[in-house]
Amino acid sequence: MFMEPKEPTPALQALRTALAEAVSRWKPRVQEMAHQIHAHKEVSFEEVRSAEAVAALLAEGGFEVERGTGGLPTAFTATAGSGDLTVALCVEYDALPDIGHACGHNLIAGASVGAALALQPFVDELGITLKAIGTPAEEHGGGKALLLERGAFDGVSLALMVHPVQDGVTYNPAGTSAQAVGRYRATFTGQAAHAAAAPHQGVNAADAAVLSQVAVGLLRQQIPGDHRIAMYVAEAGHVTNIIPERAVVEFECRAFTLKEYEALLERVRRCFEGAALATGTTLAIEDTEPLYEPLIQDDALAAHWTEAMVVFGKDISPSAGISGGSTDMGNISQVIPSLHPWLSIPGADVPIHSHSFAALADSPAAYAVMSEAATALAWTVAAAATNPTERARLVKAAYLRQTLTQEGTS
User: Fold this and answer.
1) Using N-to-C axis directions, what is the helix angle for 364-386 and 388-409, rounded to 10°?
2) What is the pLDDT of residue 321?
3) What is the pLDDT, as a whole number, of residue 323?
4) What is the distance between the alpha carbons of residues 325 and 164, in angstroms, rounded to a whole number?
5) What is the pLDDT of residues 343-358, one digit of tens each?
6) From CA 63, how far away is CA 151, in angstroms rounded?
């Protein structure tokens, strides 16, 4: 639902000005941190230097930092304030294997940290408990899903972050989403044999891997246009003179609703089962990561963000939606009012998850919009905290969720 931007009250406008000035003061340090993260290129659960760079800067800014949140060594929680409205700014910093920060997580970290540092002096005035939560392993591993399960988001009233995308995507997040995704490993087991002396005595697991790829490829003709299937063969033999007795296929399924996702997964499973039946191999399928759930944007938070984007002269036309992609922020949004807007990098006419986008994520243009996003996040928090009706809604939602959680574990 698109909500027209509203003029801020004089008090809120004064607070906006103060927050923008604070973002500006911290901008050099935050940009330096984001550049360091970009250079580190640390993949999921290995973000040791990146997590420490973020945590150290937040500690310098007056936050109490707890490292190793939820038993994850590269997670942390930085806290300031003690108000009844608890705000979580999610910080991502993991890179993709080989191509580095081709999803711009260094910019995600910079925007959240910039907002947190700006808000810190105002936590008592706003009556908030402010948490910057370091969430590792977004690309693979589901760090937020694990942290949610382990209590890191207990009591949180609202959660926010941004995500970089290509140029030309609207800054209005209302109505946008992200797909559910589940990732799996299919293992075919056959029988080894000499490929020349006795091939007829073997059961070729690599053939099963090939058939599964063909079956899934044909299935793609008959699935909705917003569904996605991706796969690759991780193992299918090692030498030419042995019939492969083991083949491993890694695959994932995506859809915008859980119901559609489950239906798609079942059809893909049948492709693998058919390949096993045709080749005489046995099949085992196991999940390799937590399920990423669909993303829900909170309309009120989206409206505050959009108001800020008007100030920066950004495109806030209603969105046609995002065609693909997933985030473990979806898991957070299923239970906590959340905001996950898209940060369009000027001049970025290349796809994300490419070497070219990784280079653009460390450009002056990217850091400029990162600072604007930090300001907009801070303004969004301030607007929600100072609106009595909205504040009551968010506090009540957190209370009810916490009560249900406690009743479920008692």
Assistant:
1) 90
2) 61
3) 61
4) 12
5) 999 999 999 999 999 9
6) 20
Q: Cα separation of 64 and 77, whole Å?
A: 8
Instruction: Classify residue 46 as exposed, middle or buried by CB count within 10 Å of its CB (0-12, 13-18, 19+).
Output: middle
Instruction: Indicate whether 72 pLDDT > 60.
Output: yes
Query: Residues with Cβ < 8 Å from 331, sequence gap 6 or more?
Result: 142, 144, 145, 148, 290, 291, 292, 293
- The secondary element (H helix, E strand) that includes residue 253 is strand 246-255
Q: Does the pLDDT at position 410 exceed 60?
A: no
What gap in Å lies between CA 296 and CA 327, rounded to an integer? 11
Cβ distance 185 to 298 under 8 Å?
no
Nearest 5°: the CA angle 188, 194, 195 is 80
Cβ burial of 389 (10 Å; 0-12, 13-18, 19+) is: exposed
What's the mean pLDDT in 171-194? 96
Burial 271-309 (b: 16+ CB within 10 A, else e): bbeebbeebebebebeeebbbbbbbbbbebbbbbbbbbb
CA geometry: angle 365, 34, 23, nearest 5 deg: 75
What is the pLDDT, as a whole number, of residue 1? 42
DSSP symbols for 202-229: -B-HHHHHHHHHHHHHHHGGGS-TT-EE
Which amino acid type is present at position 159? A
CB-based burial, 161-183: b 16+ in 10 Å, e otherwise: bbbbbbeebbbbbbbbbbbbbbb
Helix (H) or strand (E) holding 140: none
Nearest Cα residue to 190 out of 251, 242, 268:
242
Half-sphere exposure in the Cβ direction for 164 (13 Å, CA) = 39
- Tell me the H-state helices in 203-328: 205-219, 258-279, 299-311
pLDDT at residue number 317 = 87
CA dihedral sign of residues 249, 74, 374, 378: positive
Among 267, 140, 243, 141, CA closest to 189: 243
For 301-350, the pLDDT digits (tens) are 999 999 999 999 998 988 766 667 999 999 999 999 999 999 999 999 99
The pairing of beta strand 282-287 with beta strand 228-236: unpaired
Is 0.85 surpassed by the pTM of this model?
Answer: yes
Which of the 8 DSSP states describes residue 68? S
